[in-house]
Specification:
By secondary structure, the chain is α/β, with parallel strands linked by helices. It is built from 13 helices and 8 strands. It has one domain: Rossmann fold (3-Layer(aba) Sandwich), CATH 3.40.50.1820. It has an 8-stranded mixed sheet with strand order 1-2-4-3-5-6-7-8, sandwiched between helices.
Length: 316
């Protein structure tokens, strides 16, 4: 018994020591919002109060465009993921994108409610605040889930719908970013809120890209540093706790808007099986599967994915 107590004591001390060492090596404090704004929110970035949050957004291009293009990013991302699209789209269109709550510079929901329903209401209030009555609505991953759920609840506010590797159906992931895995693990997810190694962020990005040569230091820095915005690490943990509401999936077949289902063929987080399910259940969709692309086509291959979007947009 005495030996067992000594063993437990040594094991506990060893664990504490390991935690201390990891904290020293990989623990990171939040980066101040002012510092992040200086780097990631130059003009044309703006901020607007919506639902008690100071929301980071960009509203660019043709201000007289009566049908703006609204772009919604996914989990742990930011409005910057659509930069390759926005540069080209804003030449002729009004392009609006924002950091959704819990990510980017916007920061967490005040009440830490990351249910899709809450995101849908946020998008409604944001569009109202920007005077947008109808739009072409596009979303990637979590953003795609928010987009189709928005189209279900507010159909008159959507002219066309674009689902880019969108979530919604039950996940049958072949591979999941390590940060997402840890965010779902009890105890370890609490450690994630203050120990966030840069190499873990890099590994998570590599998980959703096919062409690793496109993963630059600047790209890793952006994801990593925006993760260190106050509240974002806890937001990821809170978001991962939200259960999928399978009841609403039956609503997909009721979406009548022309819809582009755009997918990366090598998406292992949300494999193409979901793309084909959307294709089967949406009555007015166009399905495009891009070869040699992962989970974020608009970021990994902006020109190819944008070409598919523009072709869809040009159709009546």
């Amino acid at each position: 018994m005495t030996f067992f107590k000594k063993f437990l004591k040594i094991a506990l001390l060893s664990f504490v020591l390991i935690v201390i060492i990891i904290s020293v090596l990989f623990g990171h404090r939040d980066i101040s919002l002012d510092k992040l704004k200086a780097k990631y929110a130059p003009s044309p970035s703006e901020f607007i109060q919506v639902d008690g949050m100071n929301v980071h957004f960009r509203d660019e291009g043709n201000s007289t465009d009566s049908l703006p293009i609204v772009l919604i990013h996914g989990t742990s991302s930011s409005l910057h993921t659509f930069e390759g699209w926005a540069i080209n789209l804003k030449k002729n269109h009004r392009v609006v994108r924002m950091d959704i709550p819990g990510f980017g510079l916007t920061g967490p929901f005040p009440r830490r409610n990351y249910a899709i329903e809450n995101y849908v209401e946020f998008i409604k209030h944001f569009l109202d605040a920007r005077g947008i009555k109808q739009c072409v609505l596009a979303g990637n991953s979590l953003g795609g889930n928010i987009a189709w759920r928005f189209a279900v609840k507010y159909p008159k506010m959507v002219n066309k719908l674009v689902l880019i590797d969108a979530s919604g159906y039950s996940l049958e992931s072949k591979d999941v970013p390590i940060a997402f895995k840890i965010a779902k693990m009890p105890i370890l997810n609490k450690i994630l809120t203050f120990i966030t190694p840069r190499f873990m962020v890099k590994a998570s990005i590599e998980n959703v890209y096919v062409d690793k040569s496109k993963i630059t230091d600047a790209l890793i820095d952006r994801y990593f540093e925006l993760t260190l915005r106050k509240g974002n690490r806890q937001a990821l943990v809170d978001r991962m706790k939200v259960k999928i509401n399978s009841d609403v999936i039956s609503e997909i077949k009721n979406i009548k808007h022309p819809t582009l289902v755009l997918w990366g063929a090598q998406d292992y987080l949300i494999p193409t099986k979901s793309a084909y399910r959307f294709h089967k259940n949406l009555p007015n969709d166009t399905l495009v599967i891009l070869k040699d692309v992962g989970h974020v086509p608009m970021e990994e291959k902006p020109q190819e994915s944008l070409a598919a979007f523009m072709d869809f947009l040009s159709k009546e």
